[in-house]
Amino acid sequence: METSIKAGMVRDLPADEQPREKLMRLGSEALSEAELIAILLRTGRPGCNVVETSRLLLEQSGGLHRMARRGWLHLKTMPGVGAVKAVTLEAALELARRLERWEPGSTIQFRTPQDVARYFGPTLRDQRKEVFIVSFLNARKVLIGYERISVGGQTATIVDPAEVMRQAILNDAHSVIVVHNHPSGNLRASEADLALTKRLIEVGHLMGVLLEDHVIIAGHDHLSLRMQGSLAGW
Question: Mind listing the domains of the chain with CATH numbers?
Fold first, then answer.
């Protein structure tokens, strides 16, 4: 349930500590994470002003990056938040992720693993389950589309290499780059990751679709299995 009008509000703070007014005077860079969140929340809860409520939200979430991994259904259970504020927070976080990606309508060319991580990282790094994506490239390594093949648990996904390559053929792809995340933040490739990559290379050769790379996203870091050089066949 949303906080009543008697809850701690922005206007209850001293004028020079009100986040909205502080932003207008000094710019957004001058505000703390709690103050920025307070502008979105607008009100606190009984006995706790909105900045204190925002600070508590960050503390209980384990920081901003961990909070970004929480969906609105989880956020609404936090003290002083509720459904409306939780949806507002999730919308703001999704806008931030989208800003990190290429400009809409621009040509997306994957020349390096960094390009892949830049495009898919904002979407994958905050996921709480493993998500496996196959991206379809033309002969110039320009992205022509991508498909989310599977969503697994916190430690593994189930992927059929034949289905990956079938989707590539259906999308007229010259080659593919597959991407998945490690919600644990561990950047090391597992034995399952290496076995899947080896199988994708083999099936790709049989079906005439090149596997360009397998990129793992772990938080703000990434790993290219091709650049790591741990598998033969590339």
Answer: 10-99 (1.10.150), 113-228 (3.40.140.10)
